[in-house]
Amino acid sequence: MTQFNFRFQKILELKENEKGFAQVQMADAIKKEQAGYQKSRAITDKLAEAEHLKREKQQGGINVGELQKLEMYINQLQEQSMVTNRELEFLQGNVTRTQNQLQQKAQEEKTWGSLKEQELSKFQDEKKVQEQNFFDELASTRFYRTSKAITAERG
């Protein structure tokens, strides 16, 4: 009995590999996005802490030079926060892009896998028909021989 041979197996394997690569890319993009969120949170925490320190110092009395240094530090943190927010927007876009690529690759793999399933089903149906024809022929031959033997015994 012949085995099923999907003529587009190499393409299916390529699509499976592409999907796997897209999964790795998406996981990497998510990891980078999470790192960006952590960085943003750390800067936000530092900023809140610096502003709280500034308020405390203002209430307790502070010299102008120290206040200016604290203001410069707060401004620097605000700039870092804006840069980090832009990076986060980029990273979020990258996650969306890799997610779309993964969906596309998964759909392509599904299409080729479905084609393989259809061809396998067709192959199995053809094999069943061949097998049934073989057994029908076997039964017909046996019936013919049996009827000939019975006719020979009678005649």
Automatic annotation (TrEMBL):
Similarity section: Belongs to the FliJ family.
Originating gene: fliJ
Biological process according to GO: bacterial-type flagellum organization; bacterial-type flagellum-dependent cell motility; chemotaxis; protein transport
GO cellular component terms, A-Z: bacterial-type flagellum; plasma membrane
Major localization listed first in the record, in broad terms: membrane
Coiled coil, from the record: 67-108
Any single Pfam family the record assigns to this protein: FliJ
Alphabetically ordered keywords of this record: Bacterial flagellum biogenesis, Bacterial flagellum protein export, Cell membrane, Cell projection, Chemotaxis, Cilium, Coiled coil, Flagellum, Membrane, Protein transport, Transport
Name of this protein: Flagellar FliJ protein
Signal peptide, first to last residue: none
Mode of membrane association: Peripheral membrane protein
Localisation per UniProt entry: Cell membrane
